[in-house]
């Protein structure tokens, strides 16, 4: 009887030890798998963060050098979506801000500080060109001038208005026509023609929309005015 009891005890102990060993191995495997998954996710997150493209001001494609202002702008889309003007990550004019309208939209910016001076729009279809001319004449030297059309920006333009805009550095203003899309960035007192200008003619054979050409977009880096 004593021998049988001892044998049962040995078997029980052996079963306990075997069970403990199996459980510990399974637990260790699960811990290894969990840690492996954790490290894998951490590595993937690190790779994702390192490969995510950087975002530059106004969403432009590359960073501007020092003493330059980043800008991005787009003309209106037909007579549905208004133009948008962004400078140094600040949206100056847009449909969301409710400060754009049919015609030529204008934002004036201090060329030294980048501070916004004024935003206006002038209806060149049903409006009067005279207030626009007075506005252009009043722009101070050293002011950055950003312009974008919406719907029609040309019908009421006359030679005087076109000449004043040309003096800001525009080359396309002389032949801007009915419902053309146009964006421009120049400055008062500029000595050369501006490199920042895009223009698409209204052409029924190539228009993206029924009566209007496609939206024109432009981005770049404006040199800060130095003393």
From TrEMBL:
<comment type="similarity">
    <text>Belongs to the FAM3 family.</text>
</comment>
<dbReference type="GO" id="GO:0043491">
    <property type="term" value="P:phosphatidylinositol 3-kinase/protein kinase B signal transduction"/>
</dbReference>
<dbReference type="GO" id="GO:0005125">
    <property type="term" value="F:cytokine activity"/>
</dbReference>
<protein>
    <submittedName>
        <fullName>FAM3 metabolism regulating signaling molecule C</fullName>
    </submittedName>
</protein>
<dbReference type="GO" id="GO:0030246">
    <property type="term" value="F:carbohydrate binding"/>
</dbReference>
<dbReference type="GO" id="GO:0043616">
    <property type="term" value="P:keratinocyte proliferation"/>
</dbReference>
<dbReference type="GO" id="GO:0010467">
    <property type="term" value="P:gene expression"/>
</dbReference>
<keyword id="KW-0732">Signal</keyword>
<dbReference type="GO" id="GO:0030223">
    <property type="term" value="P:neutrophil differentiation"/>
</dbReference>
<dbReference type="GO" id="GO:0070371">
    <property type="term" value="P:ERK1 and ERK2 cascade"/>
</dbReference>
<keyword id="KW-1015">Disulfide bond</keyword>
<dbReference type="GO" id="GO:0006954">
    <property type="term" value="P:inflammatory response"/>
</dbReference>
<dbReference type="GO" id="GO:0005576">
    <property type="term" value="C:extracellular region"/>
</dbReference>
<dbReference type="InterPro" id="IPR039475">
    <property type="entry name" value="ILEI_FAM3C"/>
</dbReference>
<dbReference type="InterPro" id="IPR039220">
    <property type="entry name" value="FAM3"/>
</dbReference>
<dbReference type="GO" id="GO:0009913">
    <property type="term" value="P:epidermal cell differentiation"/>
</dbReference>
<dbReference type="InterPro" id="IPR039477">
    <property type="entry name" value="ILEI/PANDER_dom"/>
</dbReference>
<feature type="domain" description="ILEI/PANDER">
    <location>
        <begin position="102"/>
        <end position="189"/>
    </location>
</feature>
<keyword id="KW-0430">Lectin</keyword>
<dbReference type="GO" id="GO:0005794">
    <property type="term" value="C:Golgi apparatus"/>
</dbReference>
<keyword id="KW-0964">Secreted</keyword>
<dbReference type="Pfam" id="PF15711">
    <property type="entry name" value="ILEI"/>
</dbReference>
């Amino acid at each position: 009887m004593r021998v049988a009891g001892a044998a049962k005890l040995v078997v029980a102990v052996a079963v306990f030890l075997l069970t403990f060993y199996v459980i510990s191995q399974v637990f260790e495997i699960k811990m290894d798998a969990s840690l492996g998954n954790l490290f894998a996710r951490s590595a993937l997150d690190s790779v994702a963060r390192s490969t995510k493209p950087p975002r530059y001001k106004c969403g432009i494609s590359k960073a501007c050098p020092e003493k330059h202002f980043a800008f991005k702008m787009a003309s209106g889309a037909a007579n549905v979506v208004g133009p948008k003007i962004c400078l140094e990550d600040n949206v100056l004019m847009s449909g969301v801000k409710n400060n754009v309208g049919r015609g030529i939209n204008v934002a004036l910016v201090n060329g030294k500080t980048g501070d916004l001076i004024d935003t206006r729009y002038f209806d060149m279809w049903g409006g009067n060109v005279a207030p626009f001319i007075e506005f252009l004449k009043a722009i101070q030297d050293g002011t950055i001038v950003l312009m974008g059309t919406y719907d029609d920006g040309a019908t009421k333009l006359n030679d005087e208005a076109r000449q004043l805009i040309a003096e800001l550095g525009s080359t396309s203003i002389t032949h801007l026509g009915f419902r053309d899309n146009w964006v421009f960035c120049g400055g008062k007192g500029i000595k050369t023609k501006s490199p920042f200008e895009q223009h698409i003619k209204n052409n029924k054979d190539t228009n993206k929309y029924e009566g209007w050409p496609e939206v024109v977009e432009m981005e770049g880096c404006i040199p800060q005015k130095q003393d």
